[in-house]
Design goal:
Subcellular location: Periplasm
Keywords: Signal
CATH superfamily of the largest domain: Periplasmic binding protein-like II
Pfam families: SBP_bac_8
Helix content: 40-55%
Mean pLDDT: 91
Distance between the termini: 51 Å
Family: Belongs to the bacterial solute-binding protein 1 family.
Strand content: 5-15%
Number of strands: 7
Oligomer: single chain
Number of domains: 2
Number of helices: 19
GO cellular component, one term: periplasmic space
Length: 425
């Protein structure tokens, strides 16, 4: 059981009591089915909640519709645009929240009868902000977060005579350490140069700035943040420090298993994936560190939403409360699926102090908790996924065709500005 504070328990009970009318409505009909659409590994977390759900609603079945990550979001995009084939509860990755909220097809969970804003203080601040539109509507409630981290092979660093501080002191020292690692072990610093760009553009974003577009619609992709990210990625490629290996490919997992990839910049959740299925045979060889140059950034996160056309909104909301406001459920998901909890009360649990065997006994959860507390809330924009595609296309032109960095970013900005203007009209 999680070490939830008495004040939180009381607050949680009061919040549930305020929804008594919804619960009565939800319990009125027998043999109902509540549909949950999710992607791995949130689908497994939802399934694991069924026994707890059945204790309260023995006559309500839970049907979890699971699809691969990309397939899930494609299917939900289509369903929202046509207002058909929608589930009662939809899980969304944070990069899609603004796009899905665009058409007005999601319930405002900050308004009555949901009133999730009354519980805002119990969530990691930046995560709650990610589920909130610029207009102030809370369309998605966070369940797990992805504080950015640097995972590295301790054995390869020792062989190359490189220390953790060499990797983390600055981005320039990170690249310089990669040169030594490559010379001493033959291993690549990173799987793909784009990985460096991805984490740099997400680091230390100012409030209201947004990732690609700010809250006033200004395109930011030619800002110093992007220039530096592109230049660092280019330097990594020029020094032959990346394997040109895409994430989630067979080559990627093989690189982890064989020790041909020395580091990986990602969300903290990746350590769990490595341990569970990507590279379990490398247990004890990896370590975690904060991002280079004392940068802090968010990398992923799962959110629960309710489509407006849902016929079981009361039940849907009750399920979402269980997944996002129950310390017991959040801790269970953290232990089983490495889903870093968005609920700050769970961060006080003794589980955070336990060593992680895969990381050589390191108490890395404390490291990630510290990072989560320092990440700035980033405004999401409905065109973020489009912007990501545009920026990645230009990044590839720089890496593979030698295109000038500033020219590439200027082209990305021009194209994205046209898309923003079209969306505003």
């Amino acid at each position: 059981m999680p070490a939830a504070t008495p004040s939180f328990r009381a607050s949680y009970r009061f919040f549930l009591a305020g929804l008594a009318s919804l619960t009565l409505l939800a319990s009125a009909s027998a043999q109902q089915t509540l549909t949950i659409a999710a992607f791995p590994a949130v689908d497994e977390i939802a399934k694991s909640a069924i026994p707890m759900w059945k204790k309260k609603h023995p006559d309500v079945e839970i049907k979890v519709i699971s699809r691969a990550f990309a397939d899930h979001h494609t299917a939900m995009t289509t369903a929202l645009s046509t207002s058909s084939n929608l589930p009662d509860v939809m899980v969304v990755e944070y990069g899609y929240v603004a796009r899905f909220a665009e058409g007005g097809g999601l319930e405002d969970l900050g308004a009555a009868p949901y009133n999730i804003k009354s519980q805002q203080a119990h969530f990691v601040p930046y995560a709650f902000r990610q589920g909130t539109t610029n207009a102030g509507s809370v369309v998605a409630v966070p369940s797990d977060i992805g504080p950015g981290t640097l995972l590295y092979r301790d054995d390869l660093l020792k062989k190359a005579g490189v220390k953790e501080a060499d990797l983390t002191q600055s981005w320039d020292s990170f690249v310089a350490a990669g040169v030594k690692i490559k010379a001493g072990t033959g291993a690549y610093l990173v799987a793909h140069a784009r990985d460096v760009k991805d984490i740099v553009i997400r680091s230390d974003i100012k409030p209201g700035e947004g990732l690609y577009i700010d809250n006033k619609g200004k395109v930011l992709v030619d800002s110093p943040r992007f220039v530096r990210a592109f230049e660092l990625a280019k330097k990594v490629r020029e020094q032959k420090l990346d394997g040109k290996i895409g994430a989630w490919s067979n080559e990627w997992s093989e690189g982890f298993k064989r020790g041909t990839i020395a580091t990986q910049l990602s969300g903290a959740w990746l350590a769990g994936h490595m341990n569970n299925w990507l590279a379990p045979g490398t247990k004890g060889l990896w370590r975690a560190a904060q991002l280079p140059e004392k940068a802090y950034g968010s990398w992923g996160g799962s959110f629960y939403t309710i489509p407006k056309v849902s016929k079981n909104k009361a039940l849907a909301w009750e399920f979402i409360q269980m997944m996002t406001l129950s310390p017991e459920m959040q801790l269970s998901a953290f232990k089983s699926q490495d889903a870093f909890p968005a609920l700050v009360d769970v961060h006080k649990d003794a589980f955070f102090d336990q060593p992680i065997e895969f990381l050589g006994g390191q108490k890395a959860r404390l490291l990630w908790r510290d990072a989560a507390n320092k990440i700035t809330a980033v405004d999401v924009h409905k065109l973020d996924p489009v912007a990501e595609e545009i920026v990645n296309t230009e990044m590839d032109k720089v890496l593979d065709q030698g295109k000038d960095v500033k020219t590439a970013l200027a082209d990305a900005k021009a194209l994205l500005e046209r898309r923003v203007a079209r969306a505003q009209n």
